[in-house]
Amino acid sequence: MTDEELVDALKALAHPVRLRILQALSGTERNVGEVDDIAAIGQPTLSQQLAVLRNAGLVKTRKDAKLVYYRIDDGRLAKVVDAVGKLGGLSAKPMRHLRQPAPGVANFAKLG
């Protein structure tokens, strides 16, 4: 993920209406009407904000007849979370220890 893509994703997340949309989509796929019912946003605003989330790559769409279904792009969101976590010294990925025990030295405890 490029820095520009990360900034776009963070901007998309930092909005109360878009956060409500993502909460409505948490763990499931919903069509626009279902999202509107749960998030109580209103159709014109909902469409605009879903477009922002789509452009930031945070949601995926699937069309079934006339209905468009949305779901969170878990992989993309995980990259955002990982990038933010690294700012605080945290990471979703296991960290490799750079320090190796010196040869011939007793190792009484392994920290890790």
Automatic annotation (TrEMBL):
The keyword Kinase does not apply. InterPro entries: ArsR-like_HTH (IPR011991), HTH_ArsR_DNA-bd_dom (IPR001845), HTH_MetalResp_TranReg (IPR051081), WH-like_DNA-bd_sf (IPR036388), WH_DNA-bd_sf (IPR036390). This is ArsR family transcriptional regulator. GO terms for molecular function: DNA binding; DNA-binding transcription factor activity. Keywords: DNA-binding, Transcription, Transcription regulation. Residues 1-92 form the HTH arsR-type domain. PROSITE patterns: HTH_ARSR_2 (PS50987). Coiled coil: none annotated. SUPFAM superfamilies: Winged helix' DNA-binding domain.
